[in-house]
């Protein structure tokens, strides 16, 4: 079971926790939980990574749920992990997930050194945490339509900018990845910043260019 907002849901991907090393004696308690069935829906990500270095080598897991630049997730396939290795300049991975009907995105340049299966399993187990983090970020500014996050890469002068826009009517999430060099330092990782942009009259790429010119 995993807590989502005020309800508990069945989370079949979680593994049992070991009690080895737990301080004190284990205790047995009876707990009453409010329960609802798992939300059944799908999410689609349209990924534009054309602004990432052309010499990057990519690896996707699992491959069956990605077609071109489109990833479709469901309750049976709730996660897709895509890795980028760019000529020994910088490495990072981007996870596209769905949990409890909430889509989420996570960028990481540290877990890249694990094999892709290990990283995938870790993200699958911790999916409720990542989904709640994104849900809280979006709920703080519900009027925002476009969100941007900047993540420092190695070397520190390189920045990965992730932009996302959600079309609620179709449940399609547009994601734009862009790597650039900057003299700035101390950029916090994992913080989404929202922009109230009317994307109904713009294509996603136009909205992205608007953000770049006004940030």
Briefly, what is this?
The chain has 215 residues and is an alpha+beta fold.
Uncertain residue segments: 17-21, 201-214
Number of helices: 3
Structural class: alpha+beta
> Can you tell me the number of structural domains?
1
Describe the structure in your own words:
The chain has 3 helices and 13 strands. β11 and β12 (172-181) form a beta hairpin. Strands 5-6-3-12-11-10-13 form a 7-stranded mixed sheet, with helices on one face. It has a 4-stranded antiparallel sheet with strand order 4-7-8-9. Strands 1-2 form a two-stranded antiparallel sheet. The protein is an alpha+beta fold and 215 residues long. The chain has one domain (2-214).
Which features does this protein show?
disordered C terminus; about 220 residues; seven-stranded mixed β-sheet; about 40% strand; alpha+beta; four-stranded antiparallel β-sheet
Q: How are the SSEs placed, and which strands pair?
A:
Layout: E1 2-4, E2 7-9, E3 43-51, E4 56-61, E5 66-67, E6 70-73, E7 79-86, E8 90-99, E9 102-108, H1 116-125, H2 127-139, E10 146-152, E11 158-167, E12 172-181, E13 193-195, H3 204-214
Parallel strand pairs: 3-12
Antiparallel strand pairs: 1-2, 3-6, 4-7, 5-6, 7-8, 8-9, 10-11, 10-13, 11-12
């Amino acid at each position: 079971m995993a807590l989502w907002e005020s309800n508990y849901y069945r989370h079949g991907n979680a593994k049992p926790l070991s009690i080895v090393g737990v301080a004190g004696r284990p205790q047995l308690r009876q707990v009453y939980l409010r329960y609802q069935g798992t939300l059944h829906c799908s999410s689609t990500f349209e990924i534009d990574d054309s602004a990432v270095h052309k010499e990057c080598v990519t690896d996707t897991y699992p491959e069956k749920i990605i077609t071109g630049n489109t990833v479709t997730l469901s309750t049976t396939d709730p996660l897709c992990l895509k890795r980028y290795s760019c000529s020994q300049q910088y490495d990072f991975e981007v996870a596209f997930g769905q949990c409890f009907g909430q889509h989420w995105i996570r960028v990481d340049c540290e877990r890249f050194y694990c094999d892709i299966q290990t990283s995938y399993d870790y993200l699958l187990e911790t999916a409720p945490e990542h989904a709640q983090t994104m849900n809280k970020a979006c709920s703080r500014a519900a009027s925002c339509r476009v969100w941007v996050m900047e993540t420092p890469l190695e070397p520190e002068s390189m920045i990965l900018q992730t932009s996302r826009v959600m079309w609620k009517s179709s449940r399609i999430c547009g994601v734009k990845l862009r790597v650039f060099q900057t003299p700035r330092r101390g950029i916090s990782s994992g913080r989404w910043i929202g922009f109230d942009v009317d994307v109904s009259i713009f294509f996603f790429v136009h909205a992205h260019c608007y953000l770049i010119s006004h940030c």
